[in-house]
Amino acid sequence: MIVDGKKIAEDIYQELIQDIADFGRAPVLTIITCAPHFATQKYLNLKQARAKEVGIKTEIRELSADVSTQDIIDAITHAIPQSDGIVVQLPLPSHIAQDRVIEAIPTTHDVDALNPHTLRPLSPVVGAIEAIVERHGVQVKDTFVAVVGSGKLVGIPAYQWFVSQGAHVSVVTRDVSNIEDYTKNADIVVCGAGVPSLIKPAMVREGVIIFDAGTSEDGGVLRGDADPSCALKSSLFTPVPGGIGPLTIAILLKNVVHCARQKRDVV
Fold first, then answer.
1. Measuring CA to CA, which residue among 140, 183, 138, 185 is closest to residue 162?
2. Rounded to whole angstroms, how far apart are CA atoms 7 and 243?
3. pLDDT tens, position by position, 176-221
4. Nearest partner of 184 among 149, 146, 237, 224, judged by Cα
5. CA distances for 200 relative to 75, 85, 180, 193, 211, angstroms
6. CB 112 within 8 A of CB 106
7. Rounded to the nearest 5 degrees, what angle is found at the Cα of 236, between the Cα atoms of 234 and 238?
8. Statement: residue 266 has pLDDT above 60
9. Rounded distance, CA 36 to CA 21, Å?
10. What SS3 class is residue 35?
11. Sign of the torsion angle spanned by Cα atoms 103, 104, 106, 110
């Protein structure tokens, strides 16, 4: 079955509209970005548009390319009192100490769940996986999961979440020569390497579930890590585009509402 991420996302947006109406005020999302290129700016614009649709206010703080690590941390500190959620748009310039910046985002405002101390909310990619799992009634406990890629956005949080759900999880990087030794024996494959068509049908078992979050551009076309023909062997398959991607913004905005509610309940 091909997962319709857009449909699930639209359902989440409708729920958010009602949640925010009940909340009584517009939650505030601050996005800090450094000299965004065209693709990043397009993604920022989409976040803003979707946030406005559901009733979330966005504040964009654009910094120059020669900004210092401390400048970004100062921008985060300044945003804390006036925000419910804070996003530092990656990638950052190469001279920035990214880990220091990420750890400066309070767990109370970390809607991207990049800070290693953030337990809830889930990262947008993992939140998207959870939403698909719930929608399609996937049983995760005691399954064998292969996570391809060990990055901060997909691999690491996916590993942590599946382990928390009682799955047996292996993490492999794209540099491993025998990736298929892991993927062939997996009930679930999570793709996060960013290598177009890295996973071929011969590398997975019949009936496998594939969560493809490894988007990259190939000849001007957005592609996933899993070759589209893998869908023919899959019981559940998230396409690129149209699978996990549309869900990540919906989950991000859901996280903003979660943080706003937590903030209100603490006061």
1. 140
2. 10
3. 889 999 999 999 999 999 899 999 999 999 999 999 998 877 677 7
4. 146
5. 44, 38, 9, 14, 14
6. no
7. 105
8. no
9. 32
10. coil
11. negative
Tokens of 26: 């517009």
Q: How confident is the model at residue 91 (pLDDT cuts 50, 70, 90)?
A: confident
Among residues 68, 85, 66, 69, the alpha carbon closest in space to that of 20 is found at 85
Question: Which string of b and e fits 71-100 if b means at least 16 CB within 10 Å?
Answer: bbbebbeebeeebbbbbbbeebbeebebee
Q: DSSP state, 2? A: B
> In this structure, what token pair is assigned to residue 227?
């070759």
Sign of CA dihedral 63, 69, 70, 75: positive
Give the DSSP H/E element, type plus range, for residue 47: helix 38-54
3-state secondary structure 124-138: HHHHHHHHHHHHHCC
